Amino acid sequence: MAGSSTTPPTGVIRSSALSFVASAQPPINDNPVDSSLVTGPSQTSNEQMMAAERLVPAGLKALCDAYSRLYPEQPNPLQVTTRLKYWLGGQDPLDYISMYWNPGKSEENIPPHWHYVSFGLSDLHGDGRVHPEGGLESGYGLELTLRLEAAGPAPLWPATLLQALARYVFTTGNKFCAGDHISWHAPLDGDSESRVRHLLVAEDPQLPAIDTPHGTVKFIQMVGCTGRELKAAQRGSGFDVLKLIAEDPRCGGSWLVTRARRASARKVRSARTGTAPALLAGVSARVKWLPYTTDTEESASPQLSPTVEQQIKETLQRGLNCMGSTERTVPEGHNMSTDSFEMSSIERALPQIPELMQGSWRCEDTVEYFQGVHVVMNAEGASLLPLAIDGRISHGRHFTWRCGPRALTFVTGGVSGALPTITRPYAQRGPWLQLLIPPELARDMSPQLVPLSRLADTDSESEDEGEAPAPPPALPLTLSWPKYKLKITVVPDCEFVA
């Protein structure tokens, strides 16, 4: 059992908003006694337990019980809570985040660590204040966990990280699944020397799914990873990379404990190998599209004086600095893309929009066709263009970039349910644009897109530890295929305007 007699680091103040739940539990007794014969203090304990059951929402109690089964000797864990609850207008969806001390297993290279667990992505209250009532899953059907190697008292940055991830789920409706990856592009612990700057997603190895009065709940564990490990997951399988991390004794063991001070797991290589299609079928990224214009049309446009251009740039930058965070769901400075997904049908790539809108999508007269398209992407999304072409399109598969309600999908002629045709290669239905990439265009695009993969190399090690990685291409950058009336412009994240 994880809640062993090994004591946590000294100096930890234990304070839990849920301690009254544990205090109301009846003592464990191997020799049960007929309750009708019990009087005095035992009756008081029963009354306390009944009072606690009335006070504690059923969904919250189910999570407490699950965590208490794993850590029976820690009824009052260190805990952080939101001052202003989400349903009252607060910004943090997680009501509580508890931090349990786990001694690990030295014989299996699992270090002592803090186990962070969340309360709030599942339905705690069952009264509709946050989540819709009913359904097979409780709320979003998951709670988040993270294991951090212990180096003293439990730090608070993992709790901040889990809150940011929860905001992403509530804002987009996209749920995390085991095997996903999350591009964070910043040291998780805030130390610029740390290579652990992204996250992989796994199922918590010690917390199996539970049934609650409001539905089922899975426990999804966030695992810190390096840039090389992230790229390997994008170009192969997140599960394979998690397995390599678990097998490397330097990386936290089979329980996938995050170690902020480590290099990439041995045997992890970020380059794609073999000829099999890539499993990654899409990501969340910043993307938009514009009408296609020829270079002649652009050069014929009125030229602005350097002074006017500078004024426009300064005005644009002020607008960017003042923009609301309608599309950002993580702290400023973090460029998070997530929601990697494997799909066998184009229908599963539909963006998350209200069901009423989806009904109108299936009407043929709502499809708009274009002769040409100019796609604009941020660097994170563009870094996966080589994978989309060589790992998906060249194998007859599709690839999707999602940006809030918008979605851009590259398809081939063999993708079932695709809207474009050879004569009408660019089709838009609602906020969803599909681009047909025929084999000859894919062959033209492939060599030009290869350098874009280095856009994700800024915080990664080189494949050869003795050699510095090649620099990424300078941005902004525009690639054009005039024969197909297709352009792709890649801009830095700070210059992307939705």
TrEMBL record:
Region Disordered, annotated ranges: 25-45, 455-474
Give start-end positions of Acidic residues composition bias.
Answer: 458-467
Identify the residues that the record assigns to the Suppressor of fused C-terminal domain, covering every copy.
Answer: 280-490
Q: Which InterPro entries match?
A: SUFU-like_domain, SUFU_C, SUFU_C_sf, SUFU_N, Suppressor_of_fused, Suppressor_of_fused_euk
Keyword Nucleus recorded = yes
* Source organism of the structure: Papilio xuthus (Asian swallowtail butterfly)
Q: Does the keyword Repeat apply?
A: no
Q: Give one Pfam family.
A: SUFU_C
GO terms under cellular component: cytoplasm; nucleus
Keywords, A to Z?
A: Cytoplasm, Nucleus
Q: State where the protein is found.
A: Cytoplasm; Nucleus
Q: Give the protein name, as stated in the record.
A: Suppressor of fused homolog
- The lineage's top-level taxon is Eukaryota
Q: Which family does it belong to?
A: Belongs to the SUFU family.
Polar residues bias located where? 26-45
Q: Enumerate the transmembrane spans.
A: none
